[in-house]
Write a structure and sequence with these properties.
This protein is mostly beta strands. The protein is 7% helix and 56% strand. Among the domains are: 1-30; 32-122, Immunoglobulin-like; 145-307 and 318-333, no CATH class.
């Protein structure tokens, strides 16, 4: 069956299922109810109170009385009432506060499943006797500290139950948690499941950079560590689970540290002129948090060395890195919490010196190939990152968020290398290689990018939700210059190839898009549809100049003035290597729709998404052998399915997703690049779309003694994946690479 017929059939099946469910509901005619939510706050501090809330009808008859519940201080009361227009009176009482009442009216129900009543503020009594002194003569209390407990699907670790050495930071505490593991790059795993990011008192803190909190927050300030699934920012704004929840670890501070200052500093020195110095400062109160940090070291680390020898190959130190880093973070909100701002900025200076020597052997049918190489690289770069996010919510009926980020990078890289290839026909003992090369190079780069995302949405009077998202970005890589001087000797052919190359590879790109989202709720089900348009333009110029063709000093292996260019533009154009130069503009337009069905009730979550997209691409490509305009049009369908169920005894989850990846149009152009004679690149116009099927399952059992057993099974099926075909020339020792 063709793809274009598959999507309409799936949509028809989806709406038939929903229609049947709605018809059954109509036939049974159960009594429909809606939820009324109420938050009670301190009128001065704005902190939520664990108050007693009474809901009464207009004639003062009591409907129900509930104590506000919730975790992490997010207390609220929730009432279930008949789904019809009605007037109510709400009364809140809390020890130490004066009672307060307010009226509320449900004017129209339609498809609304719930309503949030305006916050109710209580004033604290002038003279409160909530703290009373009680004498318990002869009573002795003893006990042991429980290290962790389960609250629903949340694991709560009691920080005071662990023996952590004085002066330790948060990372030392986390390492002692049962089932916890910290990788050397700061990634945290709980029972084998990766934590997406850390939060501080429920709020983001340098999101995505766990090391800053792990290395700088003293362990003695921590009350609890809570691990749970947290709704994404978009889901919280929309008010429904429109995205898969994040798996987070929330660091809850002790009450005496909820307002005040924290600072720490560390200075260390060692042999061979090794040093490290770090400084961290944090101010925080109920609504504002401001922190700064600095880090200077030449020991390849921006955190303390791992205590468990966790130096995996992918994260092991290499070379010598001198790091200078400063950063600041500001998080603040108004009294009601409806307006929030988060600002993060990090500036870093890195000097990396890397000396590498290697020997390798490749097994080939024509005889084994031996490689020897040594290289030295010195890179100096400056990086600046800043992000500001402003969020506004109005009683959960309207939301608006603007996020702006800026990235800047500037640096140079000096490198030199020597390389030799031997094969089975050569004599390694006599040091007679097939080829031998020596290269020095200098790279200058500057990158600037700006990103903006603006989203807003609101609840419609009849209960449906409508949202919009606008985004745009611009990136520039200019200059992106590379100067290289190489001498390649082909000893079997008694040839010598000297090349002095100047590569100007500057490029820029822009991207913008818009999307709309609409959702309908039916009992515990939600049906949504989103439509999106995105446009991306990439403009690339890769011009290679063979300066040795100009003769004179350019035709000698002289390391002096490597970045020297001819004095006139005409002289530079004479050296242009047309065969290995190219320019192209790639325009991509994508139209995407995503119908989604979700179920969320009684600790059970299910979602089915059937995203489809039409991708249209046009490339204007120009080089010595090709001057063309090519177009491509492709329909892609990428369904996904997710199921999750949990309680205090077990958790089970399963998911399936299909993803497609098309080879870039630039890589389909029939060209042959031999700017590096020892590593020739050949494009393959016959590449196809790669498809990946991912299946993931996870089950965890929690026993009475609070021990747990977790089992995960994951698998993937790949079709039309792209690899690299490698060809070796036994006479020259040169390689040719082609994707296939």
């Amino acid at each position: 069956m063709k793809t274009k017929y598959l999507l309409p059939l799936l949509l028809l099946l989806l709406f038939n299922v929903i229609g049947g469910a709605a018809q059954n509901a109509k036939t049974d005619k159960p009594k429909r109810t809606v939820m009324l939510g109420q938050i009670v706050k301190d009128s001065f501090t704005g902190v939520r109170l664990k108050a007693h809330v009474t809901l009464m009808r207009q004639d003062s008859t009591v409907v129900d009385t509930i104590t506000c519940k919730g975790w992490y201080g997010n207390y609220f009361a929730r009432f279930e009432v008949e789904a019809k227009p009605a007037k109510y009176i709400v009364k809140a009482e809390c020890e130490g506060y004066a009672s307060n009442c307010q009226g509320y009216e449900i004017k129209r129900v339609a498809r609304n499943r719930g309503f949030k009543m305006p916050d109710l503020n209580l004033k604290k009594l002038a003279k409160s006797d909530i703290y009373k002194e009680v004498d318990l003569d002869g009573v002795v209390v003893t006990g042991t500290k429980v290290k962790f407990t389960y609250r629903g699907d949340t694991i709560v670790y009691n920080a005071s139950a662990f023996n952590v050495p004085d002066g330790s930071m948060l990372d030392a505490l986390v390492r002692q948690l049962p089932g916890a593991e910290i990788k050397s790059n700061g990634d945290i795993y709980i029972n084998g499941k990766k934590i997406d990011y850390l939060t501080l008192n429920g709020k983001d803190f340098f999101k995505g950079n766990n090391k800053i909190m792990l290395d700088n927050l003293p362990h003695y300030t921590v009350q609890d560590l809570k691990v749970y699934h947290k709704s994404t920012e978009k889901s919280r704004l929309v008010g429904k689970e429109v995205e898969k929840k994040d798996y987070v670890m929330d660091v809850e501070l002790k009450r005496e540290y909820n307002r005040g200052y924290i600072s720490n500093a560390e200075v260390a020195g060692g042999t061979r002129q090794r040093y490290m110095a770090r400084l961290f400062g944090l101010y925080y109160d109920d609504r504002t948090r401001f922190s700064v940090f600095g880090n200077v070291n030449n020991v390849n680390e921006n955190r303390s060395p791992g205590r468990e020898g966790d130096w995996s190959p992918s994260n092991s130190p290499q070379g010598q890195t001198v790091t200078k880093q400063v950063g600041a973070s500001l998080s603040t909100q108004n009294k009601s919490g409806s307006l929030r701002e988060q600002f993060d900025a990090i500036a870093s200076w890195n000097d990396v010196t890397d000396i590498t020597r290697s020997s390798s052997e490749q097994f080939a049918s024509a005889g084994n190939i031996f490689n020897r190489s040594s290289s030295t690289s010195v890179q100096k770069e400056f990086r600046l990152y800043a992000n500001n996010k402003i969020t506004y919510t109005d009683e959960s009926t309207f939301y608006l968020q603007s996020s702006t980020s800026f990235n800047y990078g500037d640096g140079t890289n000096n490198s030199s290398s020597e390389h030799a290839i031997f094969d089975s026909e050569g004599n390694m003992a006599a040091d007679s290689p097939t080829n031998r090369s020596q290269t020095i190079s200098l790279t200058k780069f500057r990158t600037t990018s700006v990103n903006e995302s603006f989203m807003f949405g609101f609840d419609l009077p009849w209960g449906d939700k409508l949202g919009f998202n606008l985004n745009g970005s611009y990136t520039s890589n200019k200059p992106q210059d590379r100067f290289s001087l190489s001498n390649n000797e082909y000893l079997r052919e008694n040839k010598n190839d000297l090349r002095r190359v100047y590569a100007d590879s500057h490029n820029n790109s822009y991207n913008y898009g818009a999307s709309a989202y609409y959702s309908v709720e039916l009992n515990n089900w939600m049906v949504s549809l989103s439509q999106k348009y995105n446009q991306n333009m990439i403009s690339t110029n890769l011009l290679n100049y063979r300066l040795e063709r100009l003769g004179g000093l350019y035709n000698r292996f002289d390391q002096q003035q490597l970045d020297r260019l001819p004095s006139t533009r005409d002289s530079l154009l004479i050296a242009l290597d047309m065969q290995n130069s190219k320019t192209y503009n790639l325009l991509t337009r994508e139209y995407k729709g995503e119908p989604t069905l979700r179920y969320n009730h009684n600790n059970t979550y299910f979602s089915l998404s059937l995203p489809y997209r039409l991708v249209r691409e046009r490339i204007n490509y120009r080089c010595a052998s090709v001057d063309t305009t090519a177009v491509r049009r492709k329909w892609l369908v990428e369904p996904s399915l997710f199921f999750n169920k949990w309680n205090d005894k077990f958790e089970v989850s399963a998911s399936y997703s299909l993803s497609s990846s098309q080879p870039g149009m630039e890589s389909l152009m029939p060209i042959d690049n031999d700017i590096n004679p020892l590593a020739r690149r050949v494009n393959n116009p016959n590449l196809k779309t790669s498809v990946t099927h991912n299946i993931n399952s996870y089950v965890s059992f929690i026993f009475k003694n609070k021990s747990s057993l977790s089992i995960a099974l994951n698998g993937s099926v790949y079709t039309d994946m792209i690899g690299t075909r490698t060809t070796y020339n036994t006479q020259t020792g040169a390689y040719a690479y082609m994707s296939d």
